[in-house]
Design brief:
Two copies of one chain form a homodimer.
Chain A (H helix, E strand, L loop, with lengths): L9 H12 L3 E2 H11 L4 H14 L2 E6 L2 E6 L3 H17 L3 H11 L4 H18 L1
Antiparallel strand pairs in A: 1-3, 2-3
The first copy, chain A, binds a DNA duplex (30 and 30 nucleotides) through helix 1 and helix 3.
Chain lengths: 128, 128
DNA sequence: GTCGATGAATTACTGACGTAATCTGAAGTC
DNA sequence: GACTTCAGATTACGTCAGTAATTCATCGAC
């Protein structure tokens, strides 16, 4: 069974960020890390952390007087959720139109193009 | 100057759908078209249409006793907005990781792969 | 064993969104 | 011209997200 999607908001994803880089972390460390990239109030960050806990997107283990938090939702799972959501909502669930869109509207560097070509090669080799 | 983004909600995008297929349309036609794909109440659809008007995502021109509506935000512009939003929020603004993600996690048909190869060829030819 | 600090839990407020119901004004009907 | 009808405009209401402030519980300091 695929991991059932855990929807998190954009603000919540920014609180996941430090946990995706390193875990477990104490809330104080999370607050510090998030504040390095934003001007959110400590209270705000703790609220978001608690909501993530409520949703099951992070877990907490008691460490003496405080908790240590770890991600349950992985960054990859989240990226999958969000990508699939865009795909379904905006491109009728089909990948090719999305990629065509990107190739038309986003500047792809020569390096991007090269990398993509290698990806395609790898996919074809896998299919045969 | 790029068209400034007009954020619309998911429900609103479903009301744009018939207008993207054909325009202008009277509200009654829009209601009928949306109801073909959903069970929303007529009032709900008209409310969404009005919000879209307020946001400037559609325009209205008087036609006797009623209005005819046309999209201002094109489907392509909307797809661009949403794609860029995903890219920035989830993939740090870089295209390659997004595509790598798709190639790893989404099933691409042989036809998709072929199509993509052609796109890459076209891009390279344009760049030289 | 009381007091303050500090983390966690609870509560709060605003705006947007989903989902309508109600009100209004003009156009057609009798 | 009063009455109905219907499109559009206004108002409503619960929920969730963003952004906190407030309260509670516990642990260490005196």
């Amino acid at each position: 069974m695929l991991p059932s999607p855990i929807p998190i908001s954009e603000a919540e994803s920014l609180v996941m960020e430090p946990l995706w880089r390193e875990s477990p972390l104490a809330s104080e460390q999370i607050v510090a890390a998030v504040q390095a990239d934003s001007d959110w109030h400590e209270k705000t960050i703790r609220t978001l952390l608690n909501r993530l806990l409520g949703k099951g997107a992070v877990s907490a283990e008691k460490d003496g007087r405080r908790y240590l938090y770890s991600p349950v939702l992985s960054r990859e799972q989240w990226q999958s959720q969000e990508s699939r959501n865009l795909l379904d909502r905006v491109f009728g669930g089909r990948v090719a139109p999305l990629l065509a869109h990107f190739s038309r509207h986003e500047k792809l560097s020569a390096k991007d193009v090269d990398e993509l070509r290698k990806l395609l090669d790898a996919i074809e080799r896998k299919e045969h």
